[in-house]
Amino acid sequence: MRATRTDKPAALRTGRFSKAKKTLMLLTMVAPAAIWLLLLRYLPMGGLVLAFKEYKINPRNPTFISNLLNSKWVSFDNFKFLFMTDDAWVMVRNTLAYNLVFIVLGIIVPVAFAIMMNELTHKFVAKTYQTMMFFPYFLSWVVVSYFLNAFLDAQYGMIPHLQAAAGGGVTSWYTTPGPWPFILVFANLWKNVGYSTILYLAAIAGIDATQYEAAAIDGASKWQQIFHVTIPNLRSMIAILFILNVGKIFNADFGLFYNVPMQNGALFPVTQVVDTYIYYAMLNTGNIGMTSAAGLLQNVIGLFCILGANRVIKRIDSESALF
């Protein structure tokens, strides 16, 4: 009895040491990401106070903290420039309209491609298609803009040369706003559809094969298997990506709308979005507070959009909601 009493505390100490060692190893693995999140995501949130101040640099004391503390408090004046200018309606309309199209097509097109690629029986062909579709995702919008310029440039572009060779009128693409909504939507899909397709393809790969076998035994055709097995199993992935994309509905891809049209003022009616408008306002006024106010407003709207979209999804299918 005495031996068992003395051995029990030793066993407890050994178990606690093993548990503490395991916890320390896990914390060590998480630490780099936690430090990155703290330094680059949470610490900069203190700068949100810039949205409510008229930030000015004092030449005698150019430190950020000193200038921040001594800058004049202007309350919500920095938010007014987003809504009180002649271009406010244009940029808001373009931002919301483009993002709605991106969200809808960003679901339909990748799901369709993922289903088609899943039906490919030759593995080499399937891998080749995956690589070709995924490659544009890693390209900078600057590179994409020069690719597009090779087709549309009035002097050296392929399409104007073909138009001239055909004897028709040559379109000045960079001064004609009409085609650019379609060009921008196509460019966004071309660059990003591969990434979403891989996500949906991974979700399809996780579907239990017995569901397809049972559907085939019941006499379901390939189309019926897609509509009654594949798509229902993609609901959670579609819902999560939909919620995340809705959260960015008031944000625009700055690289897409700034670089692809070559910063052409003639195209502003169809290319001016919130992010480019803020950039040009910053260049003209030098007011950092305006950019901070715009960023804060975008994130607040995004938060409410995420909460709203998640609530709608939760009512339709509670298992597919994000939280």
Q: Gap between N and C termini, in Å? A: 53 Å
- Main beta sheet strand tally, sense and closure: 2 strands, antiparallel
Structural class: mainly alpha
**Count of helices?**
15
Strand content: under 5%
Helical content (DSSP H or I, runs of 4+): 55-70%
Widest sheet, order of strands: 1-2
Order of helices and strands: HEHEHHHHHHHHHHHHH
Structure description:
With 323 residues, this protein is mainly α. The protein is built from 15 helices and two strands.
Provide a brief overview of the structure.
Helices cover 70% and strands 1% of the residues. The protein is mainly α.
Throw out a few tags for this protein.
323 residues; mainly alpha; two-stranded antiparallel ribbon
List strands and helices in order, with pairings.
Elements: H1 2-42, E1 53-54, H2 64-70, E2 72-73, H3 77-80, H4 88-118, H5 123-134, H6 141-152, H7 158-165, H8 180-205, H9 209-217, H10 222-233, H11 235-246, H12 254-259, H13 268-271, H14 274-285, H15 288-316
